[in-house]
Write a structure and sequence with these properties.
The protein is an all-alpha fold and 81 residues long. It has one domain. Helix content is 58%, strand content 0%. The chain is flat and about 45 Å long. It starts with 19 loop residues before the first helix and ends in a 5-residue tail after the last helix.
Length: 81
């Protein structure tokens, strides 16, 4: 489809009742790990471009992707078979 690019990404998710303190602690640990050169290199070796984000940035990413795919599904009239 012209103008439609697909990229792969992944992130960590948690239960909505997890405390902000724990979420932030995990996010900081991930950012710290991704800042380490050996970990970044390993990700690059397997074809990933590691990019850390804040919990709010990741939430925004997930919501934007959901809206993007919903729009495509609705425009094309796609149905699960």
């Amino acid at each position: 489809m012209p103008g439609f690019a697909v990229t792969h990404w992944f992130g960590l998710v948690a239960s909505s009742d997890m405390s902000d303190a724990v979420v932030n602690q995990l996010a900081q640990a991930v950012r710290g790990a991704l800042a380490e050169e050996t970990i970044r290199q390993r990700f690059e070796e397997i074809g990933f471009a590691a990019q850390a984000s804040t919990p709010d940035e990741f939430t925004d990413k997930v919501r934007a992707e959901e809206a993007r795919w919903k729009r495509l599904i609705d425009e094309r009239g796609l149905k699960v078979e």
